[in-house]
Amino acid sequence: MAVSEEELAERALRLGFEHGMVVREVGYDDHIDQGLHDSVDVIAGQALLDLDWDGLADAVLLWFRDEDDEDLADTLDYALDLLGERGIIWLLTPKAGRAGHVEPGVVEIAVRAKGLSSTETMSVADDWNGSCLTSGGHRP
Known about the structure:
The chain is α/β, with parallel strands linked by helices. The protein has helices at about 5-15, 35-45, 70-80, 105-115; strands spanning about 25, 55-65, 85-95, 115-125, 130-135. The protein contains four helices and five strands, in the order H-E-H-E-H-E-H-E-E. Helix 2 (about 35-45) links the parallel strand 1 (about 25) and strand 2.
């Protein structure tokens, strides 16, 4: 069942995105959920920033698939370098049975290795789950 634009916007708001936030996006390609991407973009009130922007962000939207040649722990290190002091990372991974699914144990090991806490996990789109990662366990 397809998700309406209103439901996608609601999900993006539940992720904690607010107007005026600086949001970096990592892992963007043709296989992400474009509706969720667009909703975060609209809610933040500005285009999601890519690798060309060099400032610190309030949040990182991190699309990660097991088929990527990257190690999740290394990718989390990169995302941490993009964040301001109280920033959050939303780690988005394909759901079970979808191409690129990341086993929960792999996520847990990488998250712990980087000293992060997962404060919330939810379905964010038809094919994607999201985990909110923070250092120190805070939730904005």
